[in-house]
Amino acid sequence: MRQTKQSPRGLRSRAGGPSAGGFTLIETSLATLIIGIGVVAMVDAQTAFLVSNQWSSHAASATFLANEVRELTRNLPKHDPVNGLFIAEDDDGDEALFGWGPDAGETTVDDFDDIDDFDGMSFSFVGTEGIDDLDLPGPVNAYREVIPDLTIEGEEQDGAMFGWSQVVLVSKVDPYDFAETVADDAVQDPDGSFPGRAVDDFPLRVTVEVYYQGVNDIEASLVTEVTWIVP
């Protein structure tokens, strides 16, 4: 019987040489490494997207809250419509400023009837009734109502809009340089043809700072601020 010769190549293959259809340990390790790098990159990209999306959402909410205060104060006079802002002698006989800030009997946001009443006031989700601590319930909308918290479905929940606070700062500014603040009791004396400027005749600069404090945050963080001038 005729015997068929085995080629040297065939002998080497049966002797335990590398198979053309398999993977070596190095190839498997490289594939695992490449896949791992891809997964990590995808996770990082997703995390960055979530952070960016959260920042955009917070920035939009903060701008909305700041503009609500602006709308609330839009039609208010600068100073008390009854007594105004004036300098007079106090009980000790010293000159003092009267009319800046909440007036007697004004204890809630519904009582505020002029812009300077809002100076230093905070409207926050942890605010309480009474102005002694300058922290009233809030945040509030243009109708002076506390904005409720919402569920994911958009339904109102008990309690204020969680984590948010509006802080209002009011100051008098130089009529010729709105960047320069002046004292609350500042006046300008007559000088030549200039008739002078009374204590209640200065422009006001109003700034609303909006803060957010998450469940795991130690303190609130400033998200945005909106500033405008009341001539």
The Rg value, from CA coordinates, equals 34 Å
The assigned structural class equals alpha+beta
Order of helices and strands: HHEEEEEEEEEE
Sequence stretches where pLDDT stays below 50 over 5 or more residues: 10-15
Number of domains: 1
Instruction: Report helical residue fraction.
Output: 10-25%
Written overview of the protein:
- The chain has 231 residues and is an alpha+beta fold.
- It has one domain (42-230).
- It is built from 2 helices and 10 strands, in the order ααββββββββββ.
- The strands form 3 sheets. Strands 3, 4, 7, 8, 9 and 10 form a 6-stranded mixed β-sheet that branches.
- β7 (164-174) and β8 (177-182) form a beta hairpin.
- It is elongated.
Brief overview, please?
The chain is of the alpha+beta class. It is 24% helix and 25% strand. It has one domain.
